[in-house]
């Protein structure tokens, strides 16, 4: 299976893709929109995307992309994120005055960067990509924040290990397929699907969200996450994304029907087995 990821080989998305589908072939993409475009064009069989980090929160762009593309979430995994300060071989911490990495990775290492005030954080498109650039340029005054796997992939040196602010740093990743290839309800049941992701919209009137959530509660549906995103071109209107626990395909159908009675739009984003541990 060829899996598209946003980022370079050695990135956390690469690691998550291999965890989701051992032995998969990785297709690196520069941007998240490129990942979904590759899936739409059938240049990739699947996509592995980060959807939520335990420290930095949700990856909001990916909620929008899941809604606007004909895809389904079929699997999730949790990945323990360990950030490292990486330099070219022979580099020293005294030389470093610039640190490159993905904005979320930089945000997860604020304490380390604050303790090393000389290091100026600079946002880059990818953690592993920042290591690749570092090695290509051979700049001893620059460093990257990325995984140990990225350092090994590009022949760089780990200067400081586990520099994230909190050890409880996990990212939840989705495995996404084209909707027509995501399998039937029976197949999802056989895989032990116990989680459902849904997107829905509401009329802009008092109590509409309460009514929708009350309808889910009346079905005995347990929500594990809710997120809102603005509707493009409609100021102050929102799309809501929820994750629910389910016990059977019938539970999914009841939850979706309960929402349809109150919502202008309801889209099932996927059914899958909840990830446990990392």
Would you kindly provide a written description of the structure presented here, covering whatever features stand out?
The protein is an alpha/beta fold and 278 residues long. It folds into 3 domains: 95 residues, Periplasmic binding protein-like II (D-Maltodextrin-Binding Protein, domain 2, 3-Layer(aba) Sandwich), CATH 3.40.190; 77 residues, D-Maltodextrin-Binding Protein, domain 2 (3-Layer(aba) Sandwich), CATH 3.40.190.10; 96 residues, Alpha-Beta Plaits (2-Layer Sandwich). The protein is 31% helix and 33% strand. Strands 1, 2, 3, 4, 5 and 11 form a 6-stranded mixed β-sheet that branches. The chain has a 5-stranded mixed β-sheet with strand order 8-7-9-6-10. Strands 13-14-12-15 form a 4-stranded antiparallel β-sheet, with helices on both faces. Helix 9 runs antiparallel to helix 10. It is elongated and about 65 Å long. It starts with a strand and ends in a 6-residue tail after the last strand. The model has no long low-confidence stretch (mean pLDDT 92).
